[in-house]
Amino acid sequence: MEYVLKTEGLTKIYSKTRVVDNVDMIIRPGDIYGFVGKNGAGKTTFIRLLLGLARITDGKVSFFDGENIRRARKKTGSLVESPSFYPNMTAEENIRIFCRMIGEDEKQAKSVLEKVGLADTGRKKAGHFSLGMKQRLGLALALVGDPEFLILDEPINGLDPTGIAEIRKLILSLKNEQGKTLLISSHLISELEKIATRYGIIAKGRLVEEITADELDQKCGNKTSLRTSDADRTVEILKKLFDSDKIEKSADGIVYISEKIEDIGRITNELYNNNITVKTISSTDNTIESYFIERMEGG
Disulfide-capable partner of 246 in 49, 93, 258, 280 (CB 3.0 to 4.6 Å)? Predict the structure, then answer.
């Protein structure tokens, strides 16, 4: 399968405002796709368009290499904004009634609750659950019917650190042990960083960048730049001091070391001993969070 989700020019206009603006997105099988944006950037509206909960102004949504949209949405589970359930019912009763509503077998209730760690809640009413347990119940509802694709809108919003860790572990289990593909929207970059394999950054309704986790790691982190009297020889010398894949030269002759440097003097002395003059040297620490913030603000 080439893709699980593909949007082409997806647009939603409310009162002449482009809340979602010409978004082209692709999510491939096995992705945990982190959908990043500030509050109000258009994340939830975009998700509602995917699920048929809002009318598309323009553009196209397709799932599973162009499968019929009705069948495709049956293979898609979702948690949008706050979980919806009956507070005076138990977790199992909530799952069973939801199964009836959408025509699924009620017998799956126990296995679905086991997947999210709610199998032992017994007769406790859902209204008395902790916030983390309520989020787990919302995820259990999303898992009814064993969907291949899960769309989760801010699944860790409002949780304490323990609850966040529980949901993070569950999400990784859904991908690694159950083979799910996930789209997770969030403005909590530090948490997405721990689970996402690819990212999409949305700002003012526009998808400003898609990037893999590996590409992001290469762009971020500590980096030292040098301008010297001989860039090519500088590269040769530095490759003897550091891993060669951490040394690169730009088109304008600046040499970069993608590593935290504890002893700058070691570098300058080595270059001096090889008759190379260091004209400028500087270090930056471009964190993943700062990378995202710059693009979210620039949208």
Answer: 258
Cβ atoms of residues 155 and 184 within 8 Å: yes
Q: Which CATH architecture has domain 5-216?
A: 3-Layer(aba) Sandwich (3.40)
pTM attached to this predicted model: 0.78
Please write the tens of the pLDDT for every residue from 176-199. Answer: 998 999 999 988 888 898 999 999
E strand or H helix at 191: helix 189-192
Work out whether strand 221-228 and strand 255-257 pair parallel, antiparallel, or are unpaired: antiparallel
**Structural tokens at position 63:** 């799932």
User: If DSSP codes are grouped into helix, strand and coil, which group holds residue 263?
Assistant: coil
Return d(Cα 285, Cα 259) in angstroms, integer.
10
Q: Look at residues 95, 299, 76 and name the one whose alpha carbon lies nearest to residue 208.
A: 299
**Sheet order of strands, 206-212 included:** 76-79, 149-153, 181-186, 32-36, 198-203, 206-212
Tell me the three state secondary structure of residue 125. strand
CATH code of 222-287, in short, is 3.30.70
Nearest to 182 by CA among 70, 33, 298: 33
